[in-house]
Amino acid sequence: SLPAPGGGGGGGGGGGGSGSPQRPAPAPAPAPAYNGGGAEPARAPAELMASSRPLARFWEWGRNIVCVGRNYAEHAKEMGSAPPAQPLFFLKPSSAYLREGSPILRPYYCASLHHEVELGVVIGKRAQAVTQEAAMEHVAGYALCLDMTARDTQEECKKKGLPWTLAKAFNTSCPVSEFVPKEKIPDPHKLKIWLKVNGKLRQEGETSSMIFSIPYLISYISEIVTLEEGDLILTGTPEGVGSVQVNDEIEAGISDILSMRFKVAQQTRRS
């Protein structure tokens, strides 16, 4: 059941093929006029500060984690849902980030923790109402990500018409790999992502099977939420999601580019 008010918890910190569907209204705002290559306009101190931070360590300072749901048709089917007509997305806080060497913590209120492996897109420069054609200019690189989900909590939230925050936004719910510059992945829609639990393959999918492509997602999301440098978009998970238990080991990878491992532990509830 959902945790009662006042309950606390200790814890660690931190779903298109390349052919996109027609982009829904509203139309994007017009792009700023080209200044002929002159001096860059003055920027606010906060923007200058962000620019000085290394994108290779985006998880230390990136603000937004935007997660796309049901972006693979077979995953939508296994969850009992129809593929969406427009992207479905939700947010995780930056406290959800987790790096290798620290365990994924199953929340004290969760009885069914599920894995979802996803390709993450790291934003390299501010994106606000950008077009699909310009979207990839705002990408700095990629990372492999897990969208850890308290599935029983999510189902209870759905039944009650509540947001998914308890199910999706808890500490350690977004494990991430090393940053991969976009130059090393010429086409992010031609990748295989996979996940194993205790050595057994659970998920394997091609990013070409995405319902909404990466340019489409960036364009769509940036009309609603301004994407800043260092922000991360999780692009959805293929079929095969399932539960993990305390002491399980999760291994996941992108093609032969990289892999990562995490152990699962139990969150200790504050007394």
TrEMBL record:
Its EC number is 3.7.1.5, 4.1.1.112, 5.3.2.2. It comes from the Eukaryota. Belongs to the FAH family. Residues 1-19 have a biased composition (Gly residues). This is Oxaloacetate tautomerase FAHD1, mitochondrial. Residues 1-40 are annotated as: Disordered. Residues 65-264 form the Fumarylacetoacetase-like C-terminal domain. It holds the Pfam family FAA_hydrolase.
